[in-house]
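Appendix B, example 12.
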Amino acid sequence: MEDPRLPTRKEQDKFYVALGRAITNWSSLESQLFEITHLILGCARGLASVVFYRTPTIDSRLTLTTDLVEFILPNYGPGVQIPMMSLGDSEIMSLAVPT
């Protein structure tokens, strides 16, 4: 059996750059999930953070956010117009555009 080759310094650097980007992107995703949760709950940020960050796993945070979104955006059939919620343009844009 052959001994595995150790990665070169360049390969290590490339790996750690990719890992750093993944962690940064993950953090951004989690922040956006929190913003959606906060917006839907319509409460103080501190209270929304208790609800969101006390949810222990990413799977349960995704489920929480999904359940909240589905609660305020019911599943209408194709071609059915849904009534607009009282969200301002800036609130909607803050969800779509990272800050």
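The chain has a mean pLDDT of 83. Residues 23-73+88-99 form one domain.
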